[in-house]
Amino acid sequence: MTNIAKSRLTQAQLDAHWMAYTGNRQFKKDPRIITAASGHYYTDLDGRKIFDGLSGLWTCGLGHSVPAINEAVAEQVKTLDYSPAFQFGHEKSFLLAEQITQFMPEGLNRIFFTGSGSESVDTALKVARAYWRKKGMGTKTKFIGRAKGYHGASVSGFSVGGIPANRTLYGQGLESYHLPHTQVPGTEFSKGMAEQGKERAEDLINLITMHDASNIAAVIVEPMSGSAGVIVPPQGYLKRLREICDQHNILLIFDEVITAFGRMGAKTGADAFGVVPDAITMAKQVTNGVIPMGAVAFKQEIYDTFMDTGGQDYMLEIPHGYTYSAHPIACAAGLASLGEIKKQGLIERVSNMSAAWENSVHQLKGASSMITDIRNYGFAAGITIAPMGNEPAKRPFQIAMAMWDKGYYVRYGADTIQLAPPFTTEQSEIDSVINALGETIKQQS
Ligand SMILES: Cc1ncc(COP(=O)(O)O)c(C=O)c1O
Prior knowledge:
Strand order of the largest sheet: 4-10-9-8-7-5-6
Bound molecules: pyridoxal-5'-phosphate
Strand content: 15-25%
Radius of gyration: 22 Å
CATH superfamily of the largest domain: Type I PLP-dependent aspartate aminotransferase-like (Major domain)
Distance between the termini: 25 Å
Number of domains: 2
CATH architecture of the largest domain: 3-Layer(aba) Sandwich
Number of strands: 15
Largest sheet: 7 strands, mixed
Structural class: alpha/beta
CATH topology of the largest domain: Aspartate Aminotransferase, domain 2
């Protein structure tokens, strides 16, 4: 593999690309180059078929090279490749915004488009601060995130995020404080939502006592943490966060960049867990990963606050947005992607198959003493691997590399292996990836 990959790319070419969230030195010694993707499989430079065990980066729930999306994109490029995002519009953004509202909880019906998950988080946080200022409460500027949370790579994202490795290099961020994560000892190998852990929401009261609600703009959490290794909320936890936010006049933002549009076997994490936040950030699955796009759904009252205080109607109600907000090609991809999710009944499919998925994933328990926890929800699972000395990330890396060699792409991050297959995955494919993973972990033991 290695030599062929190297024979197609020169060292200078490999060196020229500073790759994102990648061990560049290791990768460039042993490049893993993907050349094509179709359905649930990638093809690599050697022509090998590789099962996509994480739907890209939680992006491609519909699988790859979906004809309806490809055709919509091709048609859009021919018709309207770009139109200015500011002061002028094109039809598809309005159609897509309305489509997105159909996936959102009732009342979250005002959609702001961005170019990525990180921009969606930035947008939600900026709007939260500006909203309170518009309400005459300009001191409400601090944010509360959660340990192990991931909210993107921007300055605001690392500030509210709670994965230490993503924060340590970057110095001062936005003023943010963190709730504890919800991986409570004793809940290992819980299926779905753990029974214990709800009490960790009470820490929000301590943070409010410390900083005062008059200084706090918003709490931001992923309803289910993806990047930290599929941390499912304990029963009643999100509901309790909602109650505390309501009692203290603090906005609650759900970061649903991973969980929106089907991954949970529900329209959103909010829908799956029965809690309605004030804003939902989304990206990834909205275009099935085909074109970068993100969005934030806001409660109408937030939108109305800006409209009501916007001054003359030709003036901007909020000086915020991106050159690629509501990009016409992304909107075309989004309409086709959401249309296919509905047409193929994929949310129902994930919901119906999630018990089988849960069973399959939990069969790994006992495959090796290195597996210290397994968590799952919808079509997602996280497997914690015991650290190798003081190197918790090493074994997951070795396991993922061995899986790649066997023809399976799985994600490794910190001390976990993460799985999130396409929504259309067959049981035989689930069996195949789980068996291969069990075997691989045993071999690494
Ligand atoms: C919950 C969450 N928020 C934000 C982001 C950042 O999205 P992007 O990488 O598109 O900027 C991610 C990416 O994985 C995510 O999982």
